Amino acid sequence: MRLGYIPPMTKGITDDAAYVIPLVEMLEEVGVESVWTVEHVIMAEGYEPLYPYSDDGRAPTAPDTLMPDPLEWLAFAAARTRHLNLCTAVVVASQHSAAILAKRVATLDALSGGRVRLGVGIGWQREEYEAIGVAYRDRGRRLDETIESMRVLWREQVATYHGRHVNFENVHMDARPANGVDVPILIGGSSEYAARRAGRLGDGWYPYVISPEDFEMGVETIDVSARQAGRDASKVELSIWPASYDFTKTFDLDFVKSYTDAGAARVVISAGESQTTDIGGQRDFIRRYQDEILAKL
Questions:
Q1: Number of folded domains in the chain?
Q2: What is the CATH number of the domain that holds 108?
Q3: Could you report the per-residue pLDDT of 22-71, keeping only the tens digit for each?
Q4: Helical H runs in 156-211?
Q5: Which backbone phi and psi does 25 adopt, to 5 degrees?
Q6: Residue 281 binned pLDDT confidence (cut-offs 50, 70, 90)
Q7: In this predicted model, what pLDDT tens digit does every residue of 219-256 receive, in sequence order?
Q8: How far is CA 140 from CA 67, 110, 123, 203, in A?
Q9: Would you list the DSSP string of 20-85?
C-alpha cells in the first residue's frame, strides 16, 4: 500500500524554499511514496457557487490558502529528492494548451527520472475559465482531447491529432518522458463521468470527497468502461484520500480499509490532518499513520 501526502497550502511557507526543502526531504526520509499538489490559477471573489463537493457550492479555502503552480512546485521538490513521486491532484488540464502542458510534463518527468503522475480534471470555477480565456462549455470534451493529444505528442516522432479543440499535423516534440513513451495520467473527480473517463482513458483514478460506497460503485463503473474501450481495468491505479470525505476518520482503520478493500492501491493523507505546519509534527503524524493504519491494511 502506497502512501501519498498533500503538503501545507499556506501563505508564507508553501512558497518558502527554506521550508519546502526540509519538508520534501523529510517526506522521502520517512518513506512517503508521493507528494500531491493542487491547481487553481485564480480564485474569483464572489464566484458562482458551482463547487461540487459542498452543500453550498463554496470551496473550503481559507484566507491564508496558497496554491502555487503545481508543476513548478514539483520541479523544485524533484531537485531535492530522488525517489518521491510527483503527483498533481489535479491540474485543470482543460484550461491548458495541450502542447504546452505536454512539453512541461515531459520535461519534468525526464529530469526527475520518471517520477511524474499527472492527475487531471475539468475544474468547476466558471470565472477561472473566463480569466484564462478558455470556454467553460464543453470542458469535458476538451479534457479528453488534451489527454489523447498529449499521448500522441509523447509517443509519436511526427505527431498528428485532429479534434474539436486540439489540432496539429506533422509536428515533432523534442521533449520526451523518461521512458520515451508516456507519463501516467490519473483522472480526478468523483462523478460517474469521471469514473467512466478513468476506465476509457486513464492510467488511474483519484476521486475526492467520495464515500466508500460511492467509491466502490466508481470502481465498478471503471471496470465496465474499460471493457467497453477494450482496456484492462486492472491497469487503472486507484488512489484515495479518505479524510476528504470525513476529516474525523483519519485514524479509523475500518473506514480506511473500506476503500482499500474496494481496490485503492494508494492512500493519501494531508498536512491539514496533522493540524500543524511544523515539519517535526508532520513527521510524527506520518509515522503514527504508518504504524496505526498503513501497516494494518
A1: 1
A2: 3.20.20.30
A3: 999 999 999 999 999 999 999 999 999 999 999 999 999 988 999 999 99
A4: 192-201
A5: -65, -40
A6: very high
A7: 999 999 999 999 999 999 999 999 999 999 999 999 99
A8: 23, 28, 10, 17
A9: HHHHHHHHHHTT--EEEE---S---TT--S--TTSTTS-----TTB----HHHHHHHHHHT-SS-E
User: Which residues are paired to 186 by β-bridges?
Assistant: 119, 204
Q: Are 269 and 241 in contact (CB under 8 A)?
A: yes
2: its cell numbers = 502506497
Residue 93 CA to its chain's centroid (Å)? 11
Domain that holds residue 223: 2-296
Q: Which residues pair with 171 in a beta bridge?
A: 159
Amino acid identity for residue 28 in this structure: E
- Label the pairing between strands 116-120 and 204-206: unpaired
SS3 of residue 267 by DSSP: strand
pLDDT in tens, 98-139: 999 999 999 999 999 999 999 999 999 999 999 999 999 999
d(CA 224, CA 200): 9
